[in-house]
C-alpha cells in the first residue's frame, strides 16, 4: 500500500491538531490533505501524500545528497573505464 | 418560431422540473418539444413537426453510427452531456473518412430533472451541432420515474457519406505503418474526475471534447490512403491501440516520450494512481498510415487547430499475438495491455 | 514535478544500469526481493528489469496487502453488508478481489449491497456525518503506510462521538511478514541475496525494525525509494554489499525515511491499536504478532464486535497457486490456472487482481520476457 506522491504545501489551515489541513500542489493540481500526521509542516515544505494525508516531510538536503551520490556512483565507473589507475569505491 | 405560444402558459425554464406528463405524448410533451427543443435546434426538418425527417443523400457509400451518453457529472469543464453527444457521434461517423450529414437525438429524462439544466444542455447540443455544420433532424423524448434515470441520458445517431477511394477500417493496419495522435491525451477523463474527486486545478483542465470531421477531411484530402482512424474514448489510447492491433492482426511499438500529455494531467494521474494511457479522450484520434505518407499527414494535422500538437508515437510491427509494446520514457519496455475492468483510482 | 522527475532521469538511469552491469560478478546470481508492492509496480511500469544484467533478478515478495488478505476476512466484510445492511467503505484496490464463491465487492454492489469506494478515511468520516441513519463500516487494510490514516480517523470518530461509524481492522505488519518469508528461504525454498526494503512503510516505522534481517538471516537490506532511479540505486547498493560480503541495513530513501520513522504516526497507532496474537495471511498461514486490532479502549468502534457474523474458513480455488507464488516458491507461469481461466479480467486469486500481484505483473510481460528461473 505504498503509492505516495511528493507535493508542495501551499496553504495551511490550523484549528486543532487532529483536524488541521493543508493544500498541496503537484504540477498545477491542488488537493486538500490532512496534516494530522505531520502537524509541524509549513508553507513551502514538500510532503509525501498518501490516501488524503501528508505522511512525512521530504528533506531537500537529503534529496540533493541522494542525487549527488547517484552521480558519484556512476562517475566512478566512467573514471574506471577511462582510467587505468584504481579508484577507491565509497564505503 | 411561433409569434405567440400555443399553450396557455410558457414553460417555467427557471424553476420548473420534468414531470411524467412531459413524456405522455400529450400537450405537455408538445410544449416541451416546442418551447425547449425546437427553439434551440431550429431547422427545416424539425420545423415540419413530423416523426421522421425526409432528405436526399449525395452519391457515395453511407455510414451510420450510434452512441448512448450517460456521462456523470452532466456538466464539466469544457463541455456537458449535450456537446459531448454531438461531438461523439460526429467523430464516430467521421472516423470512417465520411462527411457527417445529419444527426438524430433521443432523450430519456428523469422525473424531477430541472428544466433549467435541460435547456442548458439542449442549447449546448444545438450550438455544437451548428458549429459542426451538422443538423439534428429528428429526435425523441421519454420520461422515466424518479430514481430510474441519472438525470438525463442522450442517444445520438449519425449518418455520413464516404468519398470514393477512401477505405479506412480497423483491420487495415500493416507492419511498417506509422501511428499518429492529434494532441494531448487524458484531458477529458481528468476533467470529469476532477469534479468527482475534489481535485482542484490551478489552471483548470478542460475536456478536449471536439468535433473532428474538419480535421479528418483535411487529412483524407492530403493522404487518401490512411489505413485506420479511431477515437480513443473510454479506456483511453491504450485500449484503442489494442483494438486496432487485434483487428488487424499486428503488433505495435509505441514511444512513451513521444505521447503528448499535459503536466497537470500527469500530476492528477500521479495523485490518483491512474495511467494517462487509459484515461478517456473526446477530441482525439489515432491515425495509422503508410510510412511514406507520415510526414505529409503530420504536417496536415499540425496545420489544423485541433491537431496543433500532433505527434508520431510509434510503428506497426509484425506480431501474430497482437501485443502493443511501449518503450518507457525511462528507456525500459512495458506492455501496454488491455484495460482489465474499470481503471479505479489506486492507492497501492 | 519536483522530487519525481529528477528520480526518473533517463541519462542517470543509463549510467546506473552501466554501473550495475560493470559491478556484478558474472559468476554469481543476484536475487533481490522487492518486498513492497509499490516497487513491483514501479519496476514493471518503467521496465526496470530490462535494464538489469541477466544475472540480477527482482523477486516479488508478498508486500501487497490486497494479495495477503485471506478470503475469510473479505467474506466477513460482505457478510456484514448482507446480514446487517451496513454501508461498507473500501479503498478501490479491494473492489475486484475474489472472495468465496467468486464473489467480489463490485458484484455485491451490483446486487444491491451498499459498497462505497473511497479515496481517504476522511471520506469515510464525511459519509458517516452526512448519513447518520446509515451504519458505516470502514474496511481498513494495508501495511504501516496506510495504518496511521485509519488511526487518525478512529480518534476523530471518538472525538466527534460518531455513533454510526465502526472500523473493520485488517492492518498487517511488515517485519513479521518479512521474517516469515525469510524463514522459508533456503535450499527448499526461495533463494535470496538481498532485500529492497519498502519505501513508505519505512517512512512510518523507520529503519531500525529491519535490523533483524542481517543479524538473523545474513542478508543485506537497502530501504529503497519509490521512483525507478531509487530502485536502481538501491540495487547497486545491494550489489556492492553482496560483493563486499557486507550485511547491513542501508537507507537509500533518506529524503523521506529517518531512522526513527514518523514518531507522531507511531504514537497515534499505539494509542488505538493492539497487536493480535495471531492472524491468517493468505499464502503464509497464521503468523504470530503480525496484525493489528482495535485496542480495548476503542472496542465500541470495532466493527467485528458491533456486527458479529459467521464465515467459513478460507479455502483457495482448486488449482490456484497464490499461496506458493506469494512465498516466491512458484512462478505464476507454474500455476495451471494462469492465463487459462485466471486472467486480469477474470481473476481467480488476489495475485492476479492487484496490479502489484506477481501474476498481474507477469501477465503484463507474457511471452515477451524470459522466465526468471531463479526461484530454486
Automatic annotation (TrEMBL), chain A:
SUPFAM superfamilies: HupF/HypC-like. PROSITE patterns: HUPF_HYPC. One of its GO terms (molecular function) is carbon dioxide binding. It comes from the Bacteria. One of its GO terms (biological process) is protein maturation. Belongs to the HupF/HypC family. This is Hydrogenase assembly chaperone hypC/hupF.
Amino acid at each position: 500500500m505504498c503509492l505516495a506522491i511528493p507535493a508542495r504545501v501551499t496553504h495551511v489551515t490550523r484549528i486543532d491538531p487532529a483536524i488541521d489541513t493543508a493544500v498541496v500542489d503537484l504540477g498545477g493540481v491542488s488537493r486538500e490533505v490532512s496534516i494530522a500526521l505531520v502537524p509541524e509542516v509549513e508553507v513551502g515544505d514538500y510532503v509525501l501524500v498518501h490516501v488524503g494525508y501528508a505522511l512525512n516531510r521530504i528533506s531537500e538536503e537529503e534529496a540533493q545528497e541522494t542525487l549527488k551520490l547517484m552521480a558519484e556512483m556512476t562517475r566512478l565507473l566512467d573514471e574506471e573505464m577511462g582510467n587505468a589507475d584504481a579508484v577507491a569505491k565509497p564505503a | 418560431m411561433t409569434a405567440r405560444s400555443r399553450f396557455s402558459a410558457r414553460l417555467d425554464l427557471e424553476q420548473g422540473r420534468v414531470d411524467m406528463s412531459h413524456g405522455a405524448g400529450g400537450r405537455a410533451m408538445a410544449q416541451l418539444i416546442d418551447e425547449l427543443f425546437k427553439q434551440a435546434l431550429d431547422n427545416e426538418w424539425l420545423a415540419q413537426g413530423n416523426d421522421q425527417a425526409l432528405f436526399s443523400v449525395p452519391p457515395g457509400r453511407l455510414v451510420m453510427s450510434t452512441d448512448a451518453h450517460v456521462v456523470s457529472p452532466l456538466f464539466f469543464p469544457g463541455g456537458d452531456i449535450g456537446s459531448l453527444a454531438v461531438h461523439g457521434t460526429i467523430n464516430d461517423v467521421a472516423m470512417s473518412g465520411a462527411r457527417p450529414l445529419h444527426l438524430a437525438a433521443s432523450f430519456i429524462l428523469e422525473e424531477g430533472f430541472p428544466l433549467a439544466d435541460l435547456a442548458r444542455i439542449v442549447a449546448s447540443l444545438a450550438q455544437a451541432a451548428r458549429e459542426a455544420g451538422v443538423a439534428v433532424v429528428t429526435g425523441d423524448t421519454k420520461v422515466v420515474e424518479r430514481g430510474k434515470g441519472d438525470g438525463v441520458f442522450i442517444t445520438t445517431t449519425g449518418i455520413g457519406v464516404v468519398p470514393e477511394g477512401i477505405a479506412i477500417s480497423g483491420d487495415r493496419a500493416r507492419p511498417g505503418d506509422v501511428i499518429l495522435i492529434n494532441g494531448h491525451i487524458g484531458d477529458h477523463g481528468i476533467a470529469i474526475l476532477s469534479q468527482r474527486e475534489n481535485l482542484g486545478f490551478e489552471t483548470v483542465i478542460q475536456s478536449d471534447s471536439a468535433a473532428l470531421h474538419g480535421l479528418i477531411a483535411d487529412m483524407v484530402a492530403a493522404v487518401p490512403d490512411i489505413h485506420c482512424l479511431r477515437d480513443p474514448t473510454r479506456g483511453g489510447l491504450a485500449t484503442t491501440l489494442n483494438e486496432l492491433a487485434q483487428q488487424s492482426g499486428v503488433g505495435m511499438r509505441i514511444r512513451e516520450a513521444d505521447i503528448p500529455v499535459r503536466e497537470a494531467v500527469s500530476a492528477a494521474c500521479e495523485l490518483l494512481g491512474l495511467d494517462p494511457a487509459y484515461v478517456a479522450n473526446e477530441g482525439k484520434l489515432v491515425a495509422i498510415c503508410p510510412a511514406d505518407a507520415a510526414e505529409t499527414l503530420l504536417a496536415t494535422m499540425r496545420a489544423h487547430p485541433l491537431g496543433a500538437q500532433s505527434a508520431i508515437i510509434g510503428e506497426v510491427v509484425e506480431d501474430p499475438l497482437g501485443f502493443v509494446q511501449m518503450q518507457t520514457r525511462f528507456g525500459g519496455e512495458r506492455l501496454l495491455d488491455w484495460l482489465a475492468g474499470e481503471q479505479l483510482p489506486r492507492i497501492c | 514535478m519536483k522530487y519525481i522527475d529528477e528520480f526518473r532521469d533517463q541519462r542517470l538511469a543509463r549510467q546506473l544500469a552501466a554501473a550495475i552491469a560493470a559491478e556484478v560478478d558474472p559468476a554469481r546470481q543476484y536475487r533481490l526481493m522487492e518486498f513492497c508492492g509499490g516497487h513491483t509496480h514501479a519496476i514493471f511500469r518503467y521496465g526496470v528489469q530490462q535494464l538489469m544484467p541477466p544475472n540480477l533478478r527482482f523477486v516479488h515478495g508478498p508486500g501487497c496487502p490486497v494479495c495477503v488478505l485471506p478470503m475469510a476476512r473479505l467474506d466477513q466484510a460482505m457478510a456484514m453488508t448482507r446480514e446487517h445492511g451496513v454501508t461498507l467503505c473500501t479503498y478501490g484496490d479491494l473492489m475486484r478481489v475474489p472472495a468465496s464463491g467468486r464473489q467480489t465487492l463490485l458484484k455485491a454492489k451490483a446486487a444491491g449491497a451498499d459498497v462505497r469506494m473511497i479515496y481517504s478515511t476522511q471520506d469515510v468520516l464525511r459519509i458517516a456525518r452526512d448519513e447518520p441513519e446509515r451504519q458505516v463500516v470502514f474496511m481498513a487494510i494495508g501495511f504501516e503506510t496506510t495504518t496511521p490514516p485509519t488511526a487518525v480517523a478512529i480518534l476523530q470518530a471518538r472525538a466527534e462521538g460518531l455513533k454510526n461509524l465502526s472500523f473493520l481492522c485488517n492492518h498487517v505488519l511488515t517485519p513479521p511478514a518479512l521474517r516469515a518469508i525469510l524463514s522459508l528461504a533456503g535450499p527448499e525454498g526461495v533463494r535470496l541475496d538481498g532485500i529492497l526494503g519498502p519505501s513508505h512503510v519505512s517512512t512510518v516505522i523507520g529503519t531500525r525494525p529491519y535490523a533483524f534481517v542481517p543479524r538473523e538471516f545474513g542478508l543485506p537490506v537497502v530501504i529503497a525509494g519509490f521512483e525507478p532511479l531509487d530502485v536502481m540505486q538501491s540495487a547497486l547498493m545491494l550489489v556492492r554489499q553482496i560483493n563486499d560480503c557486507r550485511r547491513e541495513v542501508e537507507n537509500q530513501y533518506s529524503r523521506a525515511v529517518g531512522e526513527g520513522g514518523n514518531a507522531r504516526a507511531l504514537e497515534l497507532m499505539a494509542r488505538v491499536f493492539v497487536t493480535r496474537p495471531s492472524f491468517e495471511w493468505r499464502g503464509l498461514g497464521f503468523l504470530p504478532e503480525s496484525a493489528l486490532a482495535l485496542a480495548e479502549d476503542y472496542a465500541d468502534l470495532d466493527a467485528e464486535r458491533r456486527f458479529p457474523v459467521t464465515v467459513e474458513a478460507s479455502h483457495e480455488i482448486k488449482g490456484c497457486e497464490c499461496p506458493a507464488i506469494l512465498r516466491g516458491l512458484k512462478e505464476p507461469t507454474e500455476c495451471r490456472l494462469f492465463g487459462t481461466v485466471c486472467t486480469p479480467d477474470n481473476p481467480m486469486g488476489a495475485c492476479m487482481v492487484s496490479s502489484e500481484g506477481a501474476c498481474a505483473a507477469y501477465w503484463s510481460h507474457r511471452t515477451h520476457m524470459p522466465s526468471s528461473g531463479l526461484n530454486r
